[in-house]
Design a protein that fits this description.
single chain, about 200 residues, alpha+beta, Cathepsin B, Chain A, 6 helices, globular
């Protein structure tokens, strides 16, 4: 298959701002689901109902919750009110029975994961209008740079973002805060990719 030199999914939703908490898995899955459902959904709901972990298995565990329970719209649990809760338990206490019922409308049907996916595999999924949630390793400089090339960091952490396109054959485009995009080098090692069916 011949791939265009660059590609970007259109009509992208609002990028969730995870603030300073470890909610990257919930934010990346929310971004992908918001794109597919054409509605700004609440990462706070998904974060509250899932057991967030810093392991890459957290991507699949959280996706399972999304398939079972769905998530509410951003109007139900606005990102702007996150500061009202101090932790995940307090967030969970804010979820009403009515909200849980409304969340079922935004469930995902299914998903699958691929370890160490090839660039061509990822491009093919993007061209089929599928945002891809990816697990990567980063260091503390990742947050500060617009264009990130991979190097072997001694102090790294796991991170999850949503792949939304690629540019000039050399860069992946990922969702980033305040509706901007971050560029990842095309040879950046992607540990795991999750595709929503």
């Amino acid at each position: 298959m011949k791939y265009p030199d660059s590609f970007l999914l259109t009509d992208l939703p609002k990028v969730p701002n995870q603030h300073s908490i470890s909610a990257c898995v919930a934010c990346a899955l929310t971004f992908a689901n918001s794109y597919l459902k054409k509605r700004n959904l609440s990462w706070r709901f998904l974060y509250a109902i899932s057991e967030q972990t810093k392991k890459l298995s957290g991507i699949e565990d959280t996706a399972r919750k999304l398939a079972e329970r769905g998530q509410v719209s951003d109007e139900d649990m606005p990102e702007s009110e996150y500061w009202l809760a101090r932790n995940q338990k307090e967030e969970l206490e804010r979820i009403t029975k009515k909200m849980r019922k409304r969340a079922l409308k935004f469930k995902i049907c299914d998903f699958y994961t691929v370890k160490n996916p090839s660039a061509n595999f990822l491009k093919e999924k993007l061209l089929r209008k599928k945002p891809i949630v990816i697990g990567i390793s980063v260091d503390k400089s990742f947050d500060k740079k617009q264009m990130v090339s991979y190097k072997f960091w001694s102090r790294k952490r796991n991170h999850t973002v949503c792949l939304v396109g690629y540019a000039e054959k050399n860069w992946w485009l990922v969702d980033w805060q305040k509706s901007s995009l971050k560029f990842l080098s095309i040879n950046y090692p992607i540990k795991k990719a999750l595709i929503i069916c």
